[in-house]
Specification:
This protein is 28% helix and 24% strand. The chain starts with a helix and ends in a 14-residue tail after the last helix. It has eleven helices and 18 strands. The protein has two domains: 20-81 and 84-107 and 183-253 and 345-402, FAD/NAD(P)-binding domain (3-Layer(bba) Sandwich), CATH 3.50.50.60; 117-179 and 256-342, D-Amino Acid Oxidase, Chain A, domain 2. It has 416 residues and is α/β, with parallel strands linked by helices. The strands form three sheets. Strands 1, 2, 8, 9, 10, 11, 17 and 18 form an eight-stranded mixed beta sheet that branches. Strands 5-6-4-13-14-15-12-16 form an eight-stranded mixed beta sheet. The structure holds flavin-adenine dinucleotide (FAD) and pyrrole-2-carboxylate. Flavin-adenine dinucleotide binds at residues 37-43, 62-65, 69-72, 74-78, 206-207, 236-238, 240, 244, 259-261, 295, 338, 340, 364, 366-370. Pfam families: DAO (PF01266).
């Protein structure tokens, strides 16, 4: 059923009891043309574009938990495209373009809100790095501008720009087109649209092995619901990518770290934009429910535990209170962690692999939510055509062998 004014009105008269299920929950078939491992935003978007743009509908998305329960449902939803290198600018700006009408395309309100993302500079080095990003972006036709401390405060009135604090604000880079979206809605919207096109989404089904034939090509997977055959497999498992790729005998250049976030009690609308401080590992926005959504830097040790060290969030809250003194008495309600997959150059891997039929989309680390539509779009192309889309061609696995790195350590913000 399509969402429309008429369908909302009709269902209002039946106390909203008439809505059908938003996606089907079938048992797995014996085989599919393509299996996607991982029903996060990137996996679901890949399945959707395989069906919508390449006519490949015999697709299963296999998820060990519930869809959107990984980093997709745990992130702080910041969307921007102000990366340094041309390769990344093209990829992240492609995603930013797709965000613009994603709600209409999916017929599902993903609540994309381009309220502006402002990245603060606190040291001379920060100022130099930030200005370099602003100039690089503007050369590439990507929106970004430099603000003085006073202009930064005018854009975000709660910001403390006094000079005598630990982290004085020396300026800021502002991408006005950046913003936020509702993370769950992105997963649900892609799931609903993919399912309507025939994609099977199979939850509570963990992949335990990748099967290969005598020629080394993939032939399918083993799962907790039994074996499923496929000639093509796309692994989109974020923090668990190394584990899944290890099942095919591939060692990935990835480290998995916990990354934490927390939300406050709901407040009246008070915070008009998104503010990030990469130097002090703190970022903040206000959700439509009213809670302050606050994120920290990565924990300093590798782990698969979806919690994290208390000292990390304490450090972030100290910094937030200094930058926004009006929040000192706000109470925090919940905190959680996600497991982020970090590459040595802080850029993703979206590529074919040395194993025939096996494709991988990973390494988004602390910053993949913003890329969800673009990542799914180009990864579907890569799987369907057996060759990369021009926008993901540089994001190979081989770059870690041949040295063609795409170093985004500064733009990736919290992935230090
Ligand atoms: P996921 O949503 O994690 O999906 C992967 C799925 O694979 C999971 O559902 C998992 O259960 C499944 N899986 C794993 N192993 C198996 C298996 N063996 N069998 C079957 N299924 C399996 N990015 C931004 O752009 N902006 C932000 O503001 C931002 N903030 C963040 C804040 C936090 C606290 C965290 C943790 C991350 C943040 N990120 C942010 C990063 C972003 O969340 C991720 O890069 C992005 O969501 C990754 O999406 P995904 O679909 O690849 O992964
Ligand atoms: O990549 O913009 C980002 C981000 C913000 C918080 C975590 N990641």
């Amino acid at each position: 059923m399509r969402f429309s004014f008429a369908s909302l009105l009709r269902n209002a008269f039946s106390a909203h009891t008439g809505w059908p299920e938003q996606w089907r929950s079938p048992e797995p078939k014996a085989a599919y043309d393509v299996i996607i491992v991982g029903a996060g935003g990137h996996g679901l978007a890949t399945a959707y574009y395989l069906a919508a743009e390449h006519g490949i509908t015999n697709v299963a998305v296999v998820e060990r938990g519930w869809l959107g329960g990984g980093n997709t449902g745990r992130n702080t939803t910041i969307i921007r495209s102000n990366y340094l290198w041309e390769e990344s600018e093209a990829l992240y700006d492609h995603a930013l373009d797709l965000w613009q009408d994603l709600s209409q395309v999916l017929n599902y309100n993903v609540m994309y809100s381009p309220r502006g993302v402002m990245m603060l500079a606190h040291t001379v080095h920060d100022v130099q790095v930030s200005k370099r990003h602003v100039h690089a972006n503007r050369l590439a036709g990507i929106q970004n501008e430099w603000l003085s401390p006073e202009e930064a405060k005018a854009f975000c009135p709660p910001l403390n720009i006094s000079r005598d604090i630990r982290y004085p604000v020396m300026g800021a880079a502002l991408q006005r087109k950046g913003g936020v979206a509702r993370h769950d809605a992105v997963a649900w919207g892609y799931a609903r649209a993919a399912s309507a096109l025939g994609v099977d989404i199979i939850q509570n089904c963990e992949v335990t092995a990748i099967r290969r034939g005598p020629d080394g090509a993939v032939t399918g997977i083993e799962t907790t619901k039994g074996p499923i055959g496929a000639k093509k497999i796309g692994v989109v498992a974020a923090g668990h990518t190394s584990v899944v790729m290890g099942m095919a005998g591939l060692r990935m250049p990835l480290e998995s770290y916990p990354l934490q976030a927390l939300v406050s009690e709901p407040l009246k609308p008070v915070f008009p934009c998104v503010v990030m401080s990469n130097t002090i590992h703190a970022y903040i926005s206000q959700s439509d429910k009213g809670d302050l959504v606050i994120g920290a830097g990565t924990d300093q040790y590798v782990s698969y535990s979806q919690t994290g060290g208390l000292h990390i969030t304490t450090h972030t809250l100290d910094a937030i209170c200094e930058l926004f003194p009006m929040f000192r008495r706000v109470r925090m309600l919940r905190n959680w962690g996600g497991i982020v997959d970090v590459t040595p150059d802080r850029s993703p891997i979206l590529a074919k692999t040395p194993v025939k039929g096996l494709f991988v989309n990973c390494g988004w680390g602390t910053g993949g939510f913003k890329a969800t539509p673009g990542s799914g779009h180009v990864f579907a192309h890569t799987i369907a055509r057996d060759e990369p889309h021009p926008k993901n061609a540089p994001f190979t696995l081989e770059r870690f062998r041949d040295g063609r790195l795409i170093d985004e350590a500064a733009a990736a913000a919290v992935a230090h």
